[in-house]
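Suppose a classmate hands you a notebook page containing two proteins, each written out with its sequence and a corresponding row of structure tokens. How would you begin to make sense of it? This section walks through that situation. The first entry is reproduced here exactly as it would appear on such a page.
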Amino acid sequence: MSNAASANGQSFAADLLASVRHPDFWGFSSWLDLVTKYRRSALGLVWIFLPPVCYVFGIGYFYSLLFGRESLPFMVHLGLGYILWKMITQVITGASTTMATHRAFIMDGRIRYTDYVLRIFAKSAFYFIITAVILVPLVALVTPTLLGVMSLLVTLPIFILNVLWLGVVVAVLGARFPDLHELSTTVFIFGFLLTPIIWQASLTPADTWRGFVARLNPAFHLIEFVRAPVLGEPIEQLTYWVIIGLTVGGCVLAAYVYRRYSRFIAVWL
């Protein structure tokens, strides 16, 4: 696949496949960014573990007492919600500026734009994997059945696919509208409060006003879709329909936006 083909409207699927086959740019550079960020600190990569440890065990224990819940299951609830939410926010906020950040590469002729989206995605995936290590023993203690853990083989790839198409759309639009970065940061402040991370979905029944408002938030369904089976909780039927709509509609939208507007990115920058 040539760069010229991408500039003239190459399909999203073709560019993404080419990027996946050549991870040397986005994969290695993402890991290098992560390592060099902490290289000069005394604790090094230990700093990656400290925030989630404090969040899961410190805030998790505090809020479990506040809500009158069992500490260990609530820590898992909070921890899974935390790492899934963090991946969503890291990819979207990073994607909103990734084209501008890589402007020199683009102007130099490297215009397979999926490379820059995957660079942001890979960096967030490294954080996700490292943080997930903390949750593995806790999940093993509270998950009622092996089937709950096995559900991640289905739910997690679907979650990742949705985060990926969101990143692609935001990356293209972010090149045209620089304010998208500030907008997304502001939206996430309110989105965190409307997402079942420090609170549980059962506190907002679907037949109540607050439950209706909470379920307008796509992150509500994305996180519950992954987390609920692990904790042995049922997934709402509405969540299944939202996930199907997001996955199918989102992939179609990403393919259209990428093919229609990626050719203008260099001009916008």
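The notebook's second entry, a different protein, reads as follows.
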Amino acid sequence: MKKISLILLGCLITTIGVIILKHSNIVTGGTAGLSLSITYLTHLPFALIFFLINLPFYVFSVLRMGWNFTISTIGAVSILSLMTAVDQWLPNFSIPMLVGAVLGGLLIGIGLSIVFINGSSLGGANILALFLQKRYNVNPGQINFIFDLIVVVSSIYSVGLIRGLCSILSIFVTAKVISYYKNEIALKTTQRSVKKEAYAA
């Protein structure tokens, strides 16, 4: 129950970060950033786009991370999709780009770290980052930053150069926060692997 509560908390914090970025009219990386870019271009609901984009990544998750992690990730992605849907009922407001970039990036980094530490992810490159950390001890913050940077650079068309630069600042802050918690994330991942092997034996 504690694990589920912490994943919910991580999703809530990440949701607030995503909403802040949306009202700053900037994007983040990964599938969340890609979803925001599509939302700006098509005006379709973020929650729906975010959920659909993550579907292909579940196949990789099942093959490389196992069913428990995948089911937990599907649950976390679904929860985040539902939570971000609340934004459509919020009053219209705007946040300065720099404030939104730093605050949104900080909250997303904290939220993702909580989700990672508790054996889940929010889909997309998060899954690959945790897999590479588990298999090769690669810093998940660095992996997330590389993939996020690709998404943000490709999204400059929809948000413009200045907002694109603020978006890069946002994912840099997110990557730094995740990197700060990388040892705790690695420790929890190792402990789960040991428990799983002991159970199988």
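A careful reader of the second entry would note: Residues 2-23 form the longest helix (22 residues).
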